[in-house]
Amino acid sequence: MSRTTLERAASTLEEAANAASDDETKQRLESQSSQFESLADANRGPDHGKLARHEHVLTEIADEEGGAVANLIAEALESIHAYRETLEGV
């Protein structure tokens, strides 16, 4: 499967960063977005463990931030979950 779902997650996380209420949250989300852009372009896609770590960070940010940012993170997580469904293993 193409990694368009990871690209979509990166784009949605960039939107969430733009909606963030403080600089620290904005930076964290921009970092996550950048990492997903890199994962989408990498020769080898991420494994379940790497994605689970990202999901944990994103869930933490969503819980702290709430509102529109949390909704955008939830949308990004849906894209990540769609990609994970294509992976073998856990």
Q: Largest sheet at a glance?
A: none
Strand content is under 5%
Assign an overall shape. Answer: globular
Number of strands: 0
Low-confidence stretches: none
Q: Write down the Rg.
A: 12 Å
Please tell me the total number of domains.
1
Number of helices: 4
Biased composition (Low complexity): 9-20
Pfam families: DUF7553
InterPro entries: DUF7553
Region (Disordered): 1-52
Overview features:
single chain, 90 residues, mainly alpha, 4 helices, DUF7553
Task: Set down the secondary structure blueprint.
Layout: H1 4-19, H2 23-41, H3 48-65, H4 67-84
Structure description:
With 90 residues, the protein is an all-alpha fold. It has one domain. 79% of the residues lie in helices and 0% in strands. It contains 4 helices and no strands. Helix 1 packs antiparallel against helix 4 and helix 2 packs antiparallel against helix 3. The two termini are 18 Å apart.
Give a concise summary.
With 90 residues, this protein is mainly α. The protein has helices at residues 4-19, 23-41, 48-65, 67-84.
